[in-house]
Design goal:
With 170 residues, the chain is α+β, with helices and mostly antiparallel strands. 37% of the residues lie in helices and 29% in strands. The chain has 2 domains: 57 residues, no CATH class; 103 residues, 2-Layer Sandwich (Alpha-Beta Plaits), CATH 3.30.70.100. Strand 3 and strand 4 form a beta hairpin. Pfam families: Monooxy_af470-like (PF13826).
């Protein structure tokens, strides 16, 4: 069941820094199933584990594709510390999956590729707008509020966010 569009113009209700984590894989050799299938199956398990734990720090995510062999996830996190804590926790899905991937990668000769990027976006350095859309991205992760609260134009929303950021640091 898909989410209903929000008819009015809204913006993400995010406050403070935003942590965005991008992760993905590329299948370079379809026949090398034993190299790419375990990594492909690991991500849904991790997302399910994180989504069930309200204290995990994962605020939301969206699956993305870049063609028939490229798969990824955009994730929004409460903090860099919570993201790193999850990655390092030997009792969670990530650490054993990462160790297993590394063992398989030694003999894979590039049959599967993985990548990730992490961004800590300072308060006042992001803005968003959604119109006639279900909540997406930051709006889905943080909730939405009417655009008018932060400004009708992108420049106004940036200025509003910069003002809130300076209030917090003062």
């Amino acid at each position: 069941m898909s989410a209903q569009p929000i008819p009015e113009r809204v913006t993400a209700a995010a406050e403070g820094d935003v942590v965005v984590f991008l992760i993905g894989m590329r299948i370079n050799n379809w026949r090398a199933v034993r190299h790419w299938l375990p990594a492909f199956r690991a991500m849904p398990r991790m997302l399910k584990e994180l989504s069930r734990d309200e204290n995990s720090g994962l605020l939301g995510y969206r699956m993305i594709t870049g063609g028939p062999r490229d798969f990824g996830v955009v994730q929004y996190w409460e903090s860099r510390e919570k993201l790193l804590a999850y990655a390092a926790d030997a009792n969670k899905e990530h650490r054993p999956a990462w160790a297993a991937f590394n063992r398989r990668a030694r003999g894979s000769e590039g049959k599967v590729g993985i990548w990730h990027e992490t961004y800590v976006v300072p308060a006042g350095s992001y803005e968003s707008i959604y119109s006639g859309m279900p909540a997406q991205g930051l709006g889905k992760a943080y909730g939405v509020e009417p655009v008018a609260r932060r400004g009708e134009r992108a420049a106004e929303r940036f200025a509003s966010a910069e003002g809130r950021a300076s209030e917090v640091s003062a």
